[in-house]
Specification:
The chain is an alpha+beta fold. It has 3 domains: 17-209 and 404-453, Bira Bifunctional Protein, Domain 2 (BirA Bifunctional Protein, domain 2), CATH 3.30.930.10; 244-384, YbaK protein (Alpha-Beta Complex), CATH 3.90.960; 463-573, Anticodon-binding domain (Rossmann fold, 3-Layer(aba) Sandwich), CATH 3.40.50.800. Strands 3, 7, 8, 9, 10, 11, 12, 24, 27 and 35 form a 10-stranded mixed β-sheet that branches. A 5-stranded mixed β-sheet has the order 31-30-32-33-34, sandwiched between helices. A hairpin with a 2-residue loop joins strand 15 and strand 16. It is globular, with a radius of gyration of 29 Å. The structure holds one RNA strand.
RNA sequence: CGGGGUGUGGCUCAGUCUGGUAGAGCACAGCGUUCGGGUCGCUGGGGUCGUGAGUUCGAAUCUCGCCACCCCGACCA
C-alpha cells in the first residue's frame, strides 16, 4: 500500500479528551475517529489491525473445533423476557422499538439467541458436544464509556457457547477453550496471564479471565511467585497469616480525641497499624453489619457480599453510618459491646492484644483479647490481599500484584439458560436431558487497544509483528530523485513478493515528517530508500523496537529485513500462564 | 445516577472576570524556499462562538433552561 493512496490522517497533537496511551495513539495514528460517546469509526489502518486479531481468533477457534455462525445484532424482547434478563439486565441493555411497537434490543451478548437456536436444532446426544462461536458487534450502554476503544459502548467481540451432556464433557470443552485462548493471546504477541475470576451473580462453577498485563489496566491481579496460582483481586485469597499478639495486659480505655483514622490512632498510641482493628458499618438488604479488619487491610465488598450472602454491601456515608450505629461517630466504632451483628476478617483470628474503637466518641480500647474481652466472632474472608501475603495454594509462595486489562473470559454456565429456556435432548437411553453450557468471550477490539497499552513509547506505537497493520514501512527519502524512487519501488515489490504487507511512504513531504509518522504508526521494521545510504548504494534498515539502524546493500536488503522481522518475534509474545 | 469540568474554523487553545469590528498556532489550498527527525516566508479559503430563551442600543462575554462531551466513584470483553 502506498501512503498517498490510503487515508492515514495522523495528528501532531491528540484531542484533549484522550488520556490513556492507546486512545491517544489510535487517534494520532489515524486508526479510529469518534462518532459519539463510546462509538468509533475504524479507519483503514485501524481496521487492518482489527482484522488481524480477528483472523487469529478465527483460526484458533476453528482449530479448537468450534463452528462459526453469525447471529443477529438486533434481538426480540420476548427471548430476553424468557430468560428473565429483559427486566434484570438493566440500563446497559439498549432497547429499541420497531414500527409495530414491538420491542427489541441491540445484543450486548447472545446467550438467549444461541440457546434458542440450540433448542430448535439439538435433539440428540449424538450432536453433542458442540460449540458455536461468532465475531460480532455488540452494544452495551455503559454508564461511563472511556479509554476509547478499550471500553467503548459498541465493540467487536468473539463469543462462543458450548453444549455438553455432562460435567466431564463440559470440562473438556472448557479446557479446549482455555488452551485455544492461550494460543490466541500468545500469537497476538501479548504478555498475558490467565487468572481465576469471580463468577459474579450469574453463578456458575468455574471461571478464568485472561488479562493483558499493563500498568494502565483497570483490574488488579494477584499471582504467586512460586506456583501457578493467579487470581483477580476481587477473588484472590491468602493463606492464613501468622498469629500476632501485641499485649497480654488488661483491656484499657484510652481517650483519643479527634483521632478518627487508623493512621492517626496508630501515631497517637504509638502502635503499628497491624495492631489496630478497624470497624466498618455496612448496609445490606439484610440490615447493617459491623465488619472488622486489620488496620492495614482493606475491605473487599465483593467478598463481603458473598460472605454475608447478599447481593451487595454498601458503605454508608458518615451521617447514615452514625444513624446505623445509634449515634457513635465513625472512627470510634468497635466490636466490644456493639449491638450490631459482627463478622471479622479471617486475618483477625490470630490477632490478639489489639486496639479498636471504644464505641464511644473520642475513645479507643487497647489490649483487647478475643474470648477474654469479647466473644469470638464469626470469621470470613473479607479483605483484599496485599503484595507479600502467603499464597493460598502452595507452601512458601508469596503473592505479587499486577495490573491487567481483561481481554478474555471463559465461563462454565451450567444449566442456567438451557434449563430456563428449555433445551432438551435425548440421551442414549432415550431419556430427556438438559445439556449444560459454557460461554467464552474475547474482546477483539479491546485487544487492539490492550496491545498498544503494552507496546508503545514516547514516539508512538510498537506493534507486535502479528498485529502490525504493515510488517514493513519504506520511507522514500526524496520523491523527486529518480534513483531513490526506483530503489523504493524495487524494495516495495520484492518485499511484497515475500508475502509481507508493506507501506510505502511516497508522499511528497520532508523526511522528518515521514520519520515522525513512521514512529507513530509503529510498523516493526522501517527502511529508508534514498538519501545518505543510497549514495553508497545501500538501504537503511531499522527495527521499531529500539534496534540499531543498519545499512545493507540493496541486494541484501530483503534478506536483512526478513531477519529483522524474525528478531522482533523473539522479543514479542510471552505466555505468562501456568 | 451522584460529584467536578469543558463547549470559540478539522485539531490545540486565547478572548469571557470588566459587553462594543471574532483571534493565534497547527492543519488545508497556491507560490517561493528548504530537503535525514513535524523547515521558513508570503498569500488565501474556512467559524450560526454547543443550543434555546432572556437582559441590553449592542452578547462569545451577563442571567436562566436544555444538549453534548470529558474527568472521579458502583458493572463488564
Amino acid at each position: 500500500m502506498k501512503f498517498s493512496k490510503i487515508l492515514i490522517p495522523t495528528l501532531k497533537e491528540p484531542p484533549t479528551e484522550a488520556h490513556t496511551a492507546s486512545h491517544r495513539l489510535m487517534l494520532r495514528a489515524g486508526m479510529i475517529r469518534p462518532l459519539g460517546a463510546g462509538i468509533y469509526t475504524w479507519l483503514p489502518l485501524g481496521l487492518r489491525v482489527l482484522r488481524k486479531v480477528e483472523a487469529i481468533v478465527r483460526e484458533e477457534m476453528d482449530a479448537a473445533g468450534a463452528q462459526e455462525v453469525l447471529m443477529p445484532a438486533v434481538q426480540p424482547a420476548e427471548l430476553w423476557r424468557e430468560s428473565g434478563r429483559w427486566d434484570h439486565y438493566g440500563k446497559e441493555l439498549l432497547r429499541l422499538t420497531d414500527r409495530h411497537d414491538r420491542e427489541f434490543c441491540f445484543g450486548p451478548t447472545h446467550e438467549e439467541v444461541i440457546t434458542d437456536l440450540a433448542r430448535r436444532e439439538l435433539k440428540s446426544y449424538r450432536q453433542l458436544p458442540i460449540n458455536f462461536y461468532q465475531i460480532q458487534t455488540k452494544f452495551r450502554d455503559e454508564i461511563r464509556p472511556r479509554f476509547g476503544i478499550m471500553r467503548g459502548r459498541e465493540f467487536l467481540m468473539k463469543d462462543a457457547y458450548s453444549f455438553d451432556m455432562d460435567e466431564a464433557s463440559l470440562e473438556e470443552s472448557y479446557r479446549a477453550m482455555y488452551e485455544a485462548y492461550n494460543r490466541i493471546f500468545r500469537r497476538c504477541g501479548l504478555r498475558f496471564r490467565p487468572v481465576e475470576a469471580d463468577t459474579g451473580t450469574i453463578g456458575g462453577s468455574f471461571s478464568h479471565e485472561f488479562h493483558v498485563l499493563a500498568a494502565s489496566g483497570e483490574d488488579g491481579i494477584a499471582s504467586c511467585s512460586q506456583c501457578d496460582y493467579a487470581a483477580n483481586l476481587e477473588k484472590a485469597s491468602s493463606a492464613p497469616l501468622p498469629p500476632l499478639d501485641f499485649s497480654d495486659l488488661p483491656m484499657r480505655r484510652v481517650e483519643t480525641p479527634g483521632k478518627k483514622t487508623i493512621q492517626a490512632v496508630s501515631e497517637f498510641l504509638g502502635m503499628r497499624v497491624e495492631a489496630l482493628v478497624k470497624s466498618l458499618v455496612v448496609e445490606t438488604p439484610n440490615g447493617p453489619f459491623l465488619l472488622l479488619l486489620r488496620g492495614d487491610h482493606e475491605l473487599n465488598p465483593i467478598k463481603a457480599a458473598a460472605a454475608l450472602g447478599v447481593a451487595q454491601v454498601v458503605i454508608p456515608d458518615p451521617a447514615r453510618g452514625a444513624e446505623l450505629t445509634g449515634g457513635i461517630p465513625i472512627g470510634f466504632l468497635g466490636p466490644v459491646g456493639t449491638t450490631l451483628p459482627v463478622v471479622a476478617d479471617e486475618a483477625l483470628a490470630g490477632l490478639n492484644g489489639f486496639a479498636c474503637g471504644a464505641n464511644a466518641a473520642d475513645a479507643h480500647l487497647t489490649g483487647v483479647r478475643w474470648e477474654r474481652d469479647l466473644p469470638k466472632p464469626r470469621y470470613a474472608d473479607l479483605r483484599t490481599v496485599l503484595a507479600g501475603d502467603p499464597c493460598p495454594r502452595c507452601n512458601g509462595g508469596q503473592l505479587s500484584l499486577d495490573r491487567g486489562i481483561e481481554v478474555g473470559h471463559v465461563f462454565k454456565l451450567g444449566d442456567k439458560y438451557s434449563k430456563s429456556m428449555g433445551i432438551v435432548v435425548l440421551d442414549q437411553e432415550g431419556r430427556e436431558r438438559t445439556p449444560i453450557m459454557g460461554c467464552y468471550g474475547i474482546g477483539v477490539s479491546r485487544i487492539v487497544a490492550a496491545a498498544i497499552e503494552q507496546n508503545h513509547d514516547a514516539n508512538g506505537i510498537i506493534w507486535p509483528v502479528a498485529l502490525a497493520p504493515f510488517e514493513v514501512e519504506i520511507l522514500l527519502a526524496n520523491p523527486n530523485e529518480p534513483e531513490a524512487v526506483r530503489t523504493a519501488e524495487t524494495l516495495y515489490r520484492e518485499l511484497r513478493a515475500r508475502g509481507l504487507a508493506v507501506l510505502l511512504d511516497d508522499r511528497d513531504d520532508r523526511l522528518g515528517i515521514k520519520f515522525k509518522d513512521a514512529d507513530l504508526l509503529g510498523c516493526p521494521v522501517r527502511l529508508v530508500a534514498g538519501g545518505r545510504a543510497l549514495k553508497e548504494g545501500k538501504v537503511e534498515i531499522q527495527t521499531r523496537r529500539g534496534g540499531d539502524a543498519v545499512q545493507a546493500p540493496l541486494a541484501e536488503a530483503v534478506a536483512v529485513t526478513l531477519a529483522r522481522l524474525e528478531g522482533c518475534d523473539g522479543r514479542d509474545g510471552q505466555e505468562m500462564s501456568a
